[in-house]
Amino acid sequence: MMSDHDNESATVKPKPPSGRGKFPAGLHVLLARGAKVGLVIRRGRSKSVCTVLWNRERDTFKLGQWMRGRIYERRCDLSPNGTRFIYFAMNGRWQSETKGSWTAISRVPFLKAMSLFAKGDCWHGGGLFLSDREFWLNDGYGHTELKAANDVRRNVDGHPPDYFGGECLTVYYNRLQRDGWVMGKDEYQGAVSFEKKQSKSWLLRKLAFAEIGAPPGRGCYWDAHELRHESTDTVQAFPEWEWADFVDGRLVWTSEGQLRAARLGRGKLLGEKVLHDFNDMKCESIAAPY
C-alpha cells in the first residue's frame, strides 16, 4: 500500500545514454557506517521512486516500497547500523496532512513513516543520524511533527559542522565529509570536489555540481567522478557515473541504471561486473510489515 508518506584532464560533462531510447533509471546509494548494508534510491521518469536494500556481504537486493513523488536523495541518511532511514520527500499535495512535502524516518528498506514531520515547502528538510538512536533534523523554516517513534529522538543541538545553504548541500556535503571524503578548498572544473583514497595508489574524486541549466538527464544537483592511479599518474574521467565510492575494498558505482563493481588492480580495474540492473522495475503497491 502506498500513501503520501507510507511507502515516498578533460572537462567533465555527461552524455545522454547510448543504446537506450530514453534516460535510464537514476540511482543514488546510501551506505551504513556500522553494518554491511546499503540503501539504493531508484527514481524514474514516471514520477515514482523506490528504495532497495543492498546486502553488501552477498550482493543481494530486496525491494522496499514505492512512492509517487520525489525523494531528495542528497537530504537523506542511514543510521550507522543500517536499520533506519531519514528522508525528505515531496508529492505536491499541498492540502494534505503532510502539506505536500515532509521529512520521515522509516525502517530500512521501507518508506512507511515511524517519525513524520510535515513541511509544506522544499526549503531544508531531511537530516542526519548522529547515532543509531539520535538524529538531527534539517529544520530551516520549520516542520510540524505529526508522529514520533519511540526508539529514535531528535537532537535539536546536533547541528553538523558546516552550513552550505537551505536546500540539499548542508546535509549532503556534511554527510560526505563524515563518511571519509575530503572536501577541496578550491572549485574544480566548475564543481565542489571531494576526494577519498583507497590504499596508497587509488584516489576517487567526486565532482559535486550545483547549477541551473544542467545537462540533459540531470537535476540542478548532480555528480561526476574521476579516478586517479597515483603510481602511474593517470586520471580517468567518468562523467556518466552518478554515484561512486570505495565500498568494502572495491570500487562501486552507478551508471545507466545499474550498480556496478570492480576490484582495484595495479593501475587498472579488474573483474568489472553488474551487481544489479534497476531499469526494468515497475511501480507496485507494497505494504510495510509494521
Strand content: 35-45%
Q: What is the residue-averaged pLDDT?
A: 91
Q: Which spans have pLDDT < 50 for at least 5 consecutive residues?
A: 1-20
Helix/strand/pairing category: mainly beta
Order of helices and strands: EEEEEEEEEEEEEHEEEEEEEEE
Q: What is the overall shape?
A: globular
The largest sheet is: 6 strands, antiparallel
Distance between the termini: 12 Å
Number of helices: 1
Residues in helices, as a percent range: under 10%
Radius of gyration: 18 Å
Can you tell me the number of structural domains?
1
* Record field, number of beta strands: 22
Descriptive account of the structure:
The protein contains one helix and 22 strands. It has one helix at about 170-180, and strands spanning about 25-30, 35-45, 50-55, 60-70, 70, 75-80, 85-90, 100-105, 115-120, 125-130, 135, 145, 155, 180-185, 190-200, 200-210, 220-230, 235-240, 245, 250-255, 260-265, 270-275. The strands form five sheets. Strands 5, 6, 7, 8, 9 and 12 form a six-stranded antiparallel beta sheet that branches. A five-stranded antiparallel beta sheet has the order 14-15-16-17-18, covered by helices on one side. The model is unreliable at about 1-20 (pLDDT under 50). The chain has one domain (about 25-275). Helices cover about 5% and strands about 45% of the residues. The two termini are about 10 Å apart. By secondary structure, it is mainly β.
